[in-house]
Amino acid sequence: MKIADLMTRDVQACTIHDSLNAAARIMWDHDCGCAPVVDMHGKLVGIVTDRDISMAAYTQGVPLDAIPVERVMSPKVISCARGDDLETAHRLMRTHEIHRLPVVDTRGRPIGILSLSDVINHWHGGREAEQAVEIAATFLAIRRRRERTAAASSNGDGTLHDAKKAPKKKRPRAPKPSADLL
Q1: In b/e form, how buried is each residue of 92-125, taking b as 16+ CB within 10 angstroms?
Q2: For strand 152-154 and strand 110-115, is the pairing parallel, antiparallel, or unpaired?
Q3: Higher pLDDT, residue 56 or 123
Q4: What pLDDT, on a 0 to 100 scale, did the predictor assign at position 24?
Q5: What residues pair up with 100 in beta bridges, in sequence order?
Q6: Are 13 and 30 in contact (CB under 8 A)?
Q7: What is the DSSP code string of 29-63?
Q8: How far apart are CA 128 and CA 132, in angstroms?
Q9: Burial class (CB in 10 A: 0-12, 13-18, 19+), 174
């Protein structure tokens, strides 16, 4: 199966000069978790996710309108072509531990996005057991990344910091009623 058969075609991109508010609006309006970032020629130069936006909002303490996409986007983008096989997409997702792949044309312009959800939503055919194994292996590869970064948090500039939490304070419990009162 080819990526063109599965990808989401109506992809909305933002530019490096757009604010995070504009990127968040794209994600809200199009019910997606990321937006490709393009330069003035429409060429893919990065990707920004809903997590990038929420971490920047949390760590930078300024309105999303004041934060340019370029500051928090991932500039290293792994992409694929519409003619690539689904096996190629699985390999890229596993190797780079990602669950979204921008699909670009021959000039590097985004023409779609393939997500692991797209793969699952189109799961059918006579190779169901084989496809289930591929999807499970891809999920496990992505999960490994999350396990490694579970104790770290991003400050929006790509730097990871230890996120050692203070011990939770125990809330005092109300005393149990006396047996005499029951």
Answers
A1: bbbeebbbbbbbbeeebbbbbbbbbebbeeeeee
A2: unpaired
A3: 56
A4: 96
A5: 115
A6: no
A7: HHT-SEEEEE-TTS-EEEEEEHHHHHHHHHHH-S-
A8: 6
A9: exposed
Mean pLDDT computed over every residue of the chain: 79
Q: Which two tokens stand for residue 78?
A: 């792994």
Q: For 37-42, which contacts have Cβ atoms below 8 Å and span 24 or more sequence positions?
A: 37/13, 37/69, 37/70, 37/73, 38/13, 38/14, 38/109, 38/110, 39/15, 40/15, 42/13, 42/109
In the chain, what's the furthest Cα-to-Cα distance? 81
Task: Give me the mean pLDDT over the 2-31 stretch.
Answer: 94
Name the amino acid, one letter, at 89: A
Place of tokens 């921008």: 102
Strand 160-162 and strand 110-115: pairing? unpaired
Nearest Cα neighbor of 2 from 107, 117, 119, 98 is 119
Structure tokens at 150: 């579970």
Within 10 angstroms of residue 24's Cβ, the number of other Cβ atoms is: 18
H-run or E-run covering 81: strand 80-81
pTM of the shown model: 0.69
| pLDDT for position 126 | 53
pLDDT in tens, 48-80: 999 999 999 999 989 999 999 999 999 999 999
Phi and psi torsions of 24, nearest 5°: -65, -35
